[in-house]
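Good day; I would like, with your permission, to put a structural problem before you. What I wish to show you is a protein chain and, alongside it, a tokenised description of its three-dimensional fold. Please examine both parts with care and let me know of anything in them that strikes you as inconsistent. Thank you for your consideration; the sequence and its tokens are set out here:

***
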Amino acid sequence: MDIRPNHTIYVNNINDKIKKEELKRSLYALFSQFGQIIDIVAMKTMKMRGQAFVIFKELTAATNALRQLQGFPFYNKPMRIQYAKTDSEVITKAKGSYGDKEKKKKEKKKPQEPAGNVTKKPAGGAAPPVHTPAVQVPDNPPNYILFLSNLPEETNEMMLSMLFNQFPGFKEVRLVPGKHDIAFVEFESDTQAGVAKDALQGFRITATCAMKITYAKK
């Protein structure tokens, strides 16, 4: 009866009062810690309410997300996650089983290249990880409170809590009224804060904003 593992996971029992765009951003923030996400599909039709599909580039990322977020309290409702019944169209294309139109286009351009080459990428040539700390962030002495900056405009407390509450000792997130791009995250000890800081340094909540994390000034 089990559905075969694939790159796309199906999430349901989602709070259906959440606006579609916010839902997609929150799902991205939560799931992208496991690996590169190609797409998130969430529709607000009656049939699809409270459901979403998250499409990962790597199968291992989909598997880890499914195991670790099963039952996660997302907007106060435990998420139910399973593999989608079929690989999504995006992945099917990426694997090289293109539609006829795509095939014809490719054949015109590169008749000598067999389609099989698309799939046989060496494992080492995988996509760059989500965490890409571009520059070394100047820092203060260790502190149990972290200071986050360069946050995208749509950041909310829920998103940040979902990112940080996977780390031991997490206490709370505090947003700064009137300033969307900064926030504080409190842990029980500076050691626990340091672990979260190192793990999420440069994390991209959206494609363009790499989060900067430093210890807050004492």
Observations:
- The longest strand covers residues 179-187.
